[in-house]
Write a structure and sequence with these properties.
The protein has about 240 residues and is α+β, with helices and mostly antiparallel strands. It folds into two domains: about 15-125, Pnp Oxidase, Chain A (Roll), CATH 2.30.110; about 130-245, Beta Barrel (Thrombin, subunit H). The chain has helices at about 20-30, 70-80, 225-245, and strands at about 15, 35-40, 45-55, 60-65, 80-90, 90-95, 100-105, 110-115, 120-125, 130, 140-145, 150-160, 160-170, 180-185, 195-205, 210-220. Strand 3 (about 45-55) and strand 4 form a beta hairpin. The longest helix is centred in the last third of the chain and has 22 residues, at about 225-245. It is globular and about 55 Å long. The N and C termini lie close together (about 10 Å). This is C-di-GMP-binding flagellar brake protein YcgR.
Length: about 240
């Protein structure tokens, strides 16, 4: 069974995943993180966008949201052959659908039911493995007295070089990418409390959740904390591998 997880700090070559457990474990973050997916139809040069909104393992189906622009809904009804591509935490995830698409509803919302793929392309592009903390409810506080910032958020993932937070409300016009904030305080489970400055790399507001996702790069991290973080991320990586396999 191929291992989709990186074993070092260098970028990984693309892998073809064929085991059902690996495929499902790779698809779930696309759903839970509301990752935009790019769809390409062979007879059309335009790119379309949709979201994975449900994984039904009982019937072996994925539910895709309505396609943007909406003429993509017509293409998917006429020709079920298309390619799907998404990017999540430095990983390119791609596959091709060759099975008929069923039109249906999910919670009274129109959707497209698509077969769970037989294989996925998994390409780890980021050199540092980013460990997901979904479901662990790890609180984090971003503060900077000079900028009058004091925000409580939830840690979504972490690597040796940065992390992602989820914060309530729309903060895109308030927080500026490229700014270094003086203090991010994280009390990580089964580890210890860490406190360090961070540089904001991006903001992404999801109106459906009324949450802003903040991507940070650790700033001026010392050697001791770097080693501690490496051990913690490796621990999370091993736990993830055990749960998947």
């Amino acid at each position: 069974m191929p291992d989709p997880l990186p074993t070092g700090d260098s970028p990984q070559a693309p892998k073809i995943l064929t085991a059902s457990l690996e495929i499902l474990a790779t698809l779930r973050p696309l759903q839970t993180n509301h990752v935009p997916l790019t769809l390409r139809f062979p007879k059309h040069s335009s790119r379309y966008q949709s979201y994975l909104i449900e994984i039904n393992t009982d019937y072996g189906l994925l539910a895709f949201d309505e396609i943007i622009p909406n003429d993509g809904d017509l293409h998917i009804k006429r020709d079920p052959s298309f390619k799907v591509e998404g990017f999540h935490d430095g990983v390119r995830i791609a596959w091709e659908n060759v099975y008929p698409v069923q039109q249906g509803e999910l919670n009274n919302i129109p959707c497209h039911w698509i077969a769970i793929p037989d294989e996925l392309i998994y390409h780890q592009r980021r050199s540092a493995y980013r460990a997901s903390l979904l479901g662990r409810k790890v609180p984090a506080v971003l503060s900077d007295t000079q900028r009058a910032i004091d925000l409580l958020g939830e840690l979504m993932d972490i690597s040796t070089s940065g992390c992602k937070l989820r914060v309530y409300g729309n903060l895109q016009d308030w927080l500026q990418p490229g700014v270094v904030y003086r203090n991010l305080l994280i009390n990580m489970p089964s580890f210890r409390e860490i406190q360090l400055p961070v540089e904001l790399r991006y903001t992404n507001y999801d109106s459906s959740q009324n949450r802003t996702f903040l991507g940070f790069k650790f700033h001026d991290i010392d050697g001791l904390l770097q080693r501690d973080l490496a051990r913690y991320v490796t621990q999370l990586q091993r736990e993830f591998r055990r749960n998947v396999l």
